TrEMBL record:
Annotated source species: Shewanella benthica KT99
Protein name from the UniProt record: Transposase zinc-ribbon domain-containing protein
Transposase zinc-ribbon domain mapped to chain residues: 22-67
Length: 163
């Protein structure tokens, strides 16, 4: 029972969050490293040679000209929110011991209710899948963020009734 386990856990401070992920560039760089830990790899042909189309945030394979984005196949894929907003949301949700309502998240990340609710649902789903130990590639990016924040699985409300 998570509630009985009172421990002083090594937290991840807001200061650290902003130091590591305080700009969109830092978030993009982190996502790039999680997505392609051994360098860019074309999802179509596997080539590692690419050029980046900065204006559209796309990476184009030099070999087959396939274009891919940093956020494709991640939970950030169909969103217009900046990565930094997502990272802050992941931080708030994973660090909250009692769970965070979509309404509270809305206020904290400065978006309207619907996007806040969607962000929360996606993150909670990924956290659940992570605990189900299903290696879903679409959730890997979020896992990377969560892992880097040293999330204790017992802090995640969605996992209470599993197993
Ligand atoms: Zn290619």
């Amino acid at each position: 029972m998570a509630k009985n386990k009172v421990q002083f856990q090594k937290g991840y401070s807001l200061i650290e969050l902003f130091k590591n992920y305080g700009s969109e560039e830092q978030c993009s760089a982190a996502l790039f490293n999680w997505k392609w830990p051994h360098g860019f790899q074309c999802p179509d042909c596997g080539s590692s040679k690419y050029c980046s189309l900065k204006s559209r945030k796309l990476y184009q394979c030099n070999h087959c000209h396939h274009q891919t984005s940093l956020t494709s196949n991640t939970i950030f894929a169909s969103t217009k929110l900046p990565l930094q907003t997502w990272f802050i949301a992941i931080y708030l949700i994973t660090q909250s011991k009692t769970g965070l309502s979509a309404l509270a998240l809305k206020r904290q990340i400065g978006v309207s209710y619907n996007p806040a609710w969607k962000v929360k649902q996606k993150i909670m789903q990924v956290m659940k899948e992570r605990d189900d130990t299903k290696p879903l590639s679409s959730s890997m990016m979020c896992i990377g963020v969560a892992n880097s924040m040293e999330v204790n699985r017992e802090e995640i409300p969605a996992t209470k009734h599993l197993s």
